[in-house]
C-alpha cells in the first residue's frame, strides 16, 4: 500500500491527527511528552482507497533530543513515504526545529503537505496563514481534535497518493523487492556489500521499473532484485535517545515496500528481544520471511549448541521460514540466499484452487472433526483462498472454531502444501 507519513515536533498533535484519520475518538492521544508507542504503521482508508499511515511521533524526545529525533523522523519519512504530512502547531507558530525539518523535507522529491493544527475555530485561521513563512506552500488549517478541515486536507493528500503501491506493481513483473532487516551490527550492510560485489546494476537501463533513490538493484543468482531502503542500511544514525524507535520506524516502513524480508541474526550473540520484535514486525506485515544467521565464521561448538537451543525456543513460531547460515565476511553460503528467497516468494504467491482446497478440508474434517462444545459441533461448510501475498483463507462455518482447531488447520495446510517462507492467514465466517 502507498505510505502517508506524519511528521512534526512533539505535541503538535500528530497522534490526534492519526486518530482522526483512522476514525477513532480516543486511543493514542496523550498530552504528556516522553511517551513511547509501539505501533508505527496503521492500515487506513480514505474515500475507499487504502493506504498505510506511518506515525513517526511514537517516541517523543525531551528538549535536548528534539532536533536530532525530529530530523531522524523526517529522514525516514522522506526515504520511505509516498506523501508526507508535516504538522505544525499554529498556536506556537514556526519554531527553529520546524524550520530545520522543512529544510530536510524540501530536499525530498515527495509531495509534502503542511497541516496547521489546533485551528479549532475560524478566528484562529490567521495564525495558520502565518505559516506561509515556512516556505512549504499553503498551510492547511485543521483541528485534529475536532476534525475541522481534516477531510478537505485528506482529499488533497489522496490526489497525490500513487494509485498502486510498489508491491502491487510486481504483478506486472519487474525485480522482486527484498528488505534486509536486523538490529544494528548484525552485518546487514556487510551482507549487502558482499552480495552486490561488482554486480551493482546500472538501474536506469531497466525499463519499467520504479526506481527509488533509497533502493538498490542488485543481480544475484542470475536475476535482478530490488533491495529496499539500502540507504537506511548504510546510514549510521547516532541518536542519544529513541534509537530503538527510529530502528523500528525504518523496519516498518521498509516492510511496506518489500515483498520478502531477510531477518539477519548475529550468531555470536544470544537471540534478543529486539531480534524477535523484528520477526514480529515481519509477521504483522504479512511479508515472506527468510532467516539469515550471519557471522557463521565466528561460531564455535559451544556457542553453536546454545544457538540451536535458542532457535528451537525463540523461533518456534517461524519454523516454516527458510534458514541460511552465512558469513558476510567470507561469503560462505551466500549463494543459498537466492533459492531461499525464491522459495519464500513462491509460497507467498501460491494460490490453491477452490476445488483442491475443499477436498483438503473434507479429508481433514472427516479424519479430525471439530470437538463438541456445549452440545454443539461447529462444522466447516466450505472454504476458499481469498488472497495471495500472503495466502489468506476463509472458512465458512456453522459456529466459531476453537483457536486450537484453527491452528490445527494451519498446521495441516503447511504439512500438505509447504508454504515455506510465508505466513498464512486463516479467517472464519460464521453462517447463522
Ligand atoms: P549492520 O549494522 O547490520 O549493517 O552491520 P555491519 O555490516 O556494519 O557489520 C557490523 C560488524 O560486524 C562489522 O565490524 C563487520 O565487519 C562485522 N561482520 C559482518 N558480517 C560478518 C561476518 O560474517 N563475520 C564476521 N566475523 N564479522 C562480520
From TrEMBL:
Family, similarity comment: Belongs to the TRAFAC class TrmE-Era-EngA-EngB-Septin-like GTPase superfamily. EngA (Der) GTPase family.
Higher taxonomy: Bacteria, Bacillati, Actinomycetota, Actinomycetes, Micrococcales
Identification of the protein by name: GTPase Der
Statement: the UniProt record of this protein carries the keyword Nucleotide-binding: yes
Gene: der
Cross-referenced InterPro entries: G_ENGA, GTP-bd, GTPase_Der, KH_dom-like, KH_dom-like_a/b, P-loop_NTPase, Small_GTP-bd
Highest taxon in the source lineage: Bacteria
Biological role stated in the UniProt entry: GTPase that plays an essential role in the late steps of ribosome biogenesis.
Pfam families registered for this protein in UniProt: KH_dom-like (PF14714), MMR_HSR1 (PF01926)
Residue sites binding GTP 2 per the record: 182-189, 229-233, 294-297
Keywords: GTP-binding, Nucleotide-binding, Repeat, Ribosome biogenesis
HAMAP family in UniProt: GTPase_Der
Amino acid at each position: 500500500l502507498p505510505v502517508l507519513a506524519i511528521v512534526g515536533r512533539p505535541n503538535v498533535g500528530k497522534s490526534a491527527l492519526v486518530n482522526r484519520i483512522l476514525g477513532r475518538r480516543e486511543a493514542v492521544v496523550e498530552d504528556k511528552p516522553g511517551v513511547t508507542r509501539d505501533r508505527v504503521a496503521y492500515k487506513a482508508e480514505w474515500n475507499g482507497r487504502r493506504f498505510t499511515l506511518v506515525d513517526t511521533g511514537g517516541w517523543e524526545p525531551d528538549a535536548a533530543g528534539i532536533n536530532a529525533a525530529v530530523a531522524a523522523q523526517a529522514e525516514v519519512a522522506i526515504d520511505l513515504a509516498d506523501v508526507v504530512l508535516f504538522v505544525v502547531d499554529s498556536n506556537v507558530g514556526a519554531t527553529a526545529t520546524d524550520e530545520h525539518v522543512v529544510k530536510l523535507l524540501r530536499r525530498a522529491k515527495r509531495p509534502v503537505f503542511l497541516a496547521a493544527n489546533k485551528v479549532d475555530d475560524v478566528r484562529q485561521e490567521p495564525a495558520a496563514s502565518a505559516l506561509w513563512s515556512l516556505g512549504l506552500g499553503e498551510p492547511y488549517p485543521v483541528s485534529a481534535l475536532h476534525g475541522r478541515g481534516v477531510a478537505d486536507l485528506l482529499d488533497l493528500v489522496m490526489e497525490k497518493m500513487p494509485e498502486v503501491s510498489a508491491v502491487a506493481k510486481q504483478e506486472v513483473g519487474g525485480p522482486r523487492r527484498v528488505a534486509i532487516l536486523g538490529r544494528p551490527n548484525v552485518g546487514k550492510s556487510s551482507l549487502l556489500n558482499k552480495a552486490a560485489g561488482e554486480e551493482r546494476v546500472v538501474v536506469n537501463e531497466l525499463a519499467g521499473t520504479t526506481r527509488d533513490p533509497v533502493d538498490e538493484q542488485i543481480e544475484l543468482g542470475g536475476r535482478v532484485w530490488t533491495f529496499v531502503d539500502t540507504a537506511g542500511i548504510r546510514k549510521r544514525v547516532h541518536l542519544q535517545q529513541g534509537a530503538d524507535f527510529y530502528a523500528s520506524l525504518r523496519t516498518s516502513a521498509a516492510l511496506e515496500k518489500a515483498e520478502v524480508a531477510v531477518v539477519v541474526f548475529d550468531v555470536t550473540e544470544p537471540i534478543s528481544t529486539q531480534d524477535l520484535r523484528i520477526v514480529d514486525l515481519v509477521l504483522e506485515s504479512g511479508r515472506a520471511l527468510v532467516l539469515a544467521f550471519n557471522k557463521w565464521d565466528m561460531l564455535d561448538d559451544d556457542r553453536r549448541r546454545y544457538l540451536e537451543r535458542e532457535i528451537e525456543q525463540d523461533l518456534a513460531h517461524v519454523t516454516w521460514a527458510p534458514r541460511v547460515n552465512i558469513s558476510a565476511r567470507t561469503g560462505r553460503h551466500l549463494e543459498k540466499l537466492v533459492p531461499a528467497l525464491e522459495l519464500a516468494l513462491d509460497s507467498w504467491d501460491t494460490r490453491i484452487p477452490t476445488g483442491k482446497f475443499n477436498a483438503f478440508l473434507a479429508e481433514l474434517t472427516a479424519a479430525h472433526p471439530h470437538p463438541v462444545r456445549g452440545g454443539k459441533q461447529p462444522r466447516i461448510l466450505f472454504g476458499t483462498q481469498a488472497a495471495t501475498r500472503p495466502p489468506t483463507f476463509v472458512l465458512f462455518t456453522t459456529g466459531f472454531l476453537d483457536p486450537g482447531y484453527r491452528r490445527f488447520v494451519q498446521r495441516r495446510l503447511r504439512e500438505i502444501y509447504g508454504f515455506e517462507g510465508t505466513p498464512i492467514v486463516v479467517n472464519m465466517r460464521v453462517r447463522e
